[in-house]
Amino acid sequence: SPLHQPFVMPIACPECGSAVERPEGEAVARCTGGLYCPAQRKQALIHFASRRAMDIEGLGERFVEDLVDFGYLKTVADLYRLTLDDLLAMKRRADARDGVTPETVKQGRIATRWAENLLGGIDASRDTALERVLFALGIRDVGEATAKQLARWFGSLDALMAASVDELKTVPDVGPVVSARIHSFFSQEHNREVIAALRANGVRWAEGAPQRTVEGPLAGKTVVLTGGLDALTRDEAGAHLEALGAKVAGSVSKKTSLVVAGEAAGSKLDKARELGIEVWDEAALLAFLRGHGRLP
């Protein structure tokens, strides 16, 4: 009977029509629609706007949900088309849905300041770095470190988008699985259209010549930062280490060369000791950076 027909996994996403992939050895099948798929839209937008991605100040989860629910955002590129009238209309609709009655004291400029601030945050994010864009796109398994490697290796987004799986596999620490995922993402016409729309709406990132050799005293070394630092933020420390040739990673593994442990370092420090990895405290880090001209 029809009720007992075996389930057949779709080859296309029922929401957006993008290819459905299930990598060999994995139990989960996933839509490759990424930026385009309605089912993934809210989380894709929240990730895109996050501090370590495009860093859009003022765009919280609630605003994303309302902007999507009321049809103002279909892709991340639509963020850069929003107007003050759009945001105010969205707020009126959200208030009506939630039964909120506008207060007369909140009229005029006070009532629009949040929207003006959000538009300012969106506008400020238009000038960014290639690695931030790559991380913001939400390509599976492309974290911050991999995004930086890709940006450095290819120099431009067009070169990366045109790369074959074999060319992607030449990037340090980008293996065959991640290479295939990157290639699949950029092969989807929907994703390419979103990237074109980002450019058309004024999103800009610096590009340059490919950098396929790494020089410096930490070339070839993978460094993990954990715990709190007093003299520098972890982002600042990571930037200094990368300038000296290091790859800064987020987790400790057998491939880790060095762990910098600040205050209240936890499980990452424990794992480093367990694996016999060299550990520096903040004083050792600062001395090293000063010795190589990164700090006065």
Structure description:
The structure is a single chain. With 296 residues, this protein is of the alpha/beta class. Helix content is 44%, strand content 8%. The protein has a four-stranded parallel β-sheet, sandwiched between helices. The protein has a two-stranded antiparallel sheet with strand order 1-2. Helix 1 (41-49) packs across helix 2 (61-69) and helix 5 (130-136) crosses helix 6 (144-154).
Strand order of the largest sheet: 6-5-7-8
- According to DSSP, the number of beta strands is 8
Main sheet: strands, sense, barrel:
4 strands, parallel
Molecular shape: globular
- Percent of residues in helical segments? 40-55%
Q: Rg to the nearest angstrom?
A: 23 Å
Low-confidence stretches: none
Number of helices: 13
Roughly what is the average pLDDT, rounded to an integer?
90
The helix-and-strand class reads: alpha/beta
**How far apart are the first and last residues' alpha carbons, in Å?**
78 Å
One letter per element, helices H and strands E, the order comes to EEHHHHEHHHHHHEEHEEHEH
As a percent range, the share of strand residues is: 5-15%
Which terms would index this structure?
alpha/beta, 44% helix
Brief summary of the model shown:
The chain is an alpha/beta fold and 296 residues long. The chain is 44% helix and 8% strand. The strands form three sheets. Strands 6-5-7-8 form a four-stranded parallel beta sheet, with helices on both faces. A two-stranded antiparallel ribbon has the order 1-2.
